[in-house]
Each structure stands twice: as C-alpha cells, then as structure tokens.
Design goal:
With 299 residues, this protein is of the alpha/beta class. The chain is 39% helix and 16% strand. Strand 5, helix 6 and strand 6 form a beta-alpha-beta unit.
C-alpha cells in the first residue's frame, strides 16, 4: 500500500507540474511584447529621396512627415553648385588675357557687343572650355546724356530692328551659348522683349537675367532656357564687402543647391574670385563646386 500511494502521488505531482508549465508558457506567448512591423521599408543606394523608396505605404501624410524628418546629406558629387559669369568682358585685351589665364573652365564669360575682335575673343574663351555669352545692351531713355551706341536694343514691339541686330551679331561669330541682360528693363518693354526671347528659344540660346526687376521673369516663352542671377556685383566695392557677398553666395548655394553670380570684371573682383576658387580647391572636401552656367539648365 505504501508503495502504491507513493507512485500515485508521484504521478499526480508530475501531471500538475506539466499543467502549470503549459499554462505559464501560454501566458508568456499571449502577453509577449513584439515590435510592430514597420510601415516603411527604406532602401537607399544614394543619399537622395525618391517616392520609389516608400511604395509600401498609402499614407501620404506619414510619408511627408518621414521625408521631412530625414537629414539631407550631400556627398562630394552633390556639392552645392556656384555658377559665376564675368560680365562685360572684351573691352580690355590685357584684362581678357588675365581672366582667361587665371580663371578655370568652370567660370563663364559674357562679352560686350563692342568688344574688339569679338569672334576671336569668344573663340579663345571657348578653346579654354568656357561658356560664352554676349551682353545685351538696351537703349538709354536719356540718350542725350548716356549714348548706348548702335548695338543697343530698342525693345519696341512693332519693330524688327532688334532681331536684325541680333542676327547680325550671331552671324559674325561661330557659336555662342546665349545672352545676358542686366540693369533695369521696364514693363513697357515687355512686348519687345518677348519677340527677342522667342528668337532665343528657337535658336536654343540661354538667357541670363541679371536685371533688378521682374519684367523678364514675368514673360513665359515655351522652350526658353533662362536663369535668374542671385547676386550681381557691378559697382565699385571694397574687399570687405566682396567677402560678405562671397559668404552670402555660399549660404544661398547650400540652401538652394545652387547660386548664380554675375560679376563685373574689375581687378579687385577678379582677384577675390581667384582667391576664393583656390581656397575651395585646396580643401580636401569641397563644400561647394564651381560649374558653368549651362550645367544648371535642363535641356
């Protein structure tokens, strides 16, 4: 009897233990805290953001919140771009030579229509792989005081004289990337400008807008490649103020991804530009990169 009771007790004990362990295991499995399956599966081969990386979600609000929260990283190949164009060159041959020798191929040049040997000057710059442009000069409203000469545009809507003038300039040179226009162009010139810009579009020419008002920006011509200058340095200026503008250009480039600077070819401007380019080039990691104007255009 004693032995039979011990066996019965032993069996009962192990059955109870098994039941307790089973209940405990079920409780653990039921209440286990598991990480939620992520809504977004992110796979980036480059530090850029594309909608294709987020195809697993249909929640646009969460998508935009996620995109905004992610830091933007710029590699050496995606450094902010600075496009500099030296405006109104060609009038001083010695200065032309200095500019061509001291500034690399990523600096663009805009020649005065009154340049000596315009075709040869443009060809020399193109041989150095520079973008080349011609400056558009508009007729002065007060021509008795300021004579802008026979190569100035009238910008009259009912006249073809400007088209004839521009065709003459273009026929006298081998090729050109486009034109630049600066200063003030009043809204009353809008119709005349539109005719010229239509011609530029047809001939696949770039227009650089360095004006100080919105007339050109308000004109929409299908297929026209135009770009607006962010900074224009055209007055006499000291080294300290130039340094401020250079720092401003870097800030704009880093915020927008690119900046366009138009610079008058005064010696101090060229000197500061050369120093700036050399300083950027000597850095192991370039914070910005200098590019021709044409690389910013979508062709």
């Amino acid at each position: 009897m004693v032995k039979a009771q011990k066996k019965s007790f032993s069996l009962t004990f192990w059955l109870l233990m098994f039941a307790a362990l089973a209940a405990f295991g079920f409780f653990i499995l039921k209440n286990e805290t598991r990480p939620e399956t992520p809504k977004f599966v992110l796979t980036f081969s480059q530090p850029v953001y594309t909608d294709a990386a987020y195809d697993d979600t249909e929640d646009d609000n969460e998508l935009e919140n996620l995109r905004a929260a992610m830091p933007l990283e710029l590699s050496r190949n995606t450094a902010p771009k600075i496009a500099v164009i030296i405006n109104d060159v060609g009038l001083n041959q010695n200065l032309n030579d200095i500019i061509n020798k001291s500034l690399g191929e990523n600096i663009s040049l805009a020649f005065s229509p009154y340049s000596r040997n315009l075709d040869n000057a443009i060809t020399a710059a193109q041989n150095d792989n520079k973008d080349t442009y011609i400056k558009l000069i508009t007729s002065s409203e007060n021509y008795l005081i300021e004579d802008t000469g026979p190569k100035a545009l009238n910008l009259e809507a009912n006249s073809d004289s400007d088209i004839t003038l521009l065709n003459g300039l273009l026929n006298a040179i081998d090729r050109i990337d486009g034109f630049i226009i600066d200063g003030y162009v009043g809204p009353e010139k809008k119709a005349g400008l539109e005719k010229i810009l239509s011609m530029f579009s047809q001939r696949h020419l770039i227009l650089i807008d360095a004006t100080d008002n919105e007339t050109i920006n308000s004109i929409n011509v299908n297929g026209l490649q135009k770009i607006r200058a962010d900074i224009v340095i055209d007055d006499d200026i000291n080294r300290e103020n130039l340094q401020v503008l250079i720092s401003t250009a870097e800030i704009i480039a880093k915020e927008k991804g690119q900046v366009v600077m138009v610079v008058n070819p005064k010696p101090i401007n060229i000197l500061m530009l050369v120093e700036w380019i050399n300083a950027i080039s000597n850095n192991e990691v370039e914070s910005v990169s200098f590019v021709p104007i044409s690389t910013l255009m979508v062709r």
